[in-house]
Design brief:
Layout: H1 10-18, H2 33-62, E1 67-68, E2 71-72, H3 76-83, H4 85-99
Antiparallel strand pairs: 1-2
Helix pairs in contact: 1-2, 2-3
Length: 103
């Protein structure tokens, strides 16, 4: 039922870029659609070096020094708290996608 939530933010952005059946709902003119899609892909790939260390920092902050030999252990609560940033950012992106005005 919620498969669309797990797909990521690119379908929302690309849908807004390419528009719908209404040509006035497009965000980019026809001559700049390729550049807009390329910028969207670049921005998506550039967020990984920011989000992944942030999640790792949250893991380290939540976990006391619990070790089984040389392996650190994390509880389910640690995973839920550290990865909760992803749905939060997803809903922030949806909010901002509705703030974009069509031409």
């Amino acid at each position: 039922m919620f498969v669309g939530l797990a797909m990521g933010l690119m379908p929302i952005t690309l849908g807004r870029l390419l528009g719908s059946k209404n040509p006035h709902a497009e965000l980019a003119p026809k001559s700049a659609v390729s550049i807009s899609i390329g910028f969207t892909n670049t921005l998506t790939m550039c967020t990984a070096p920011i989000i992944q260390p942030l999640i790792g920092y949250i893991f380290n902050w939540l976990t006391p020094d619990i070790h089984l030999g040389i392996i650190e252990t994390y509880s389910l609560h640690n995973f839920r708290v550290a990865l909760s940033i992803l749905p939060i950012l997803f809903f922030v992106a949806i909010f901002f996608s509705f703030k974009i005005r069509p031409r």
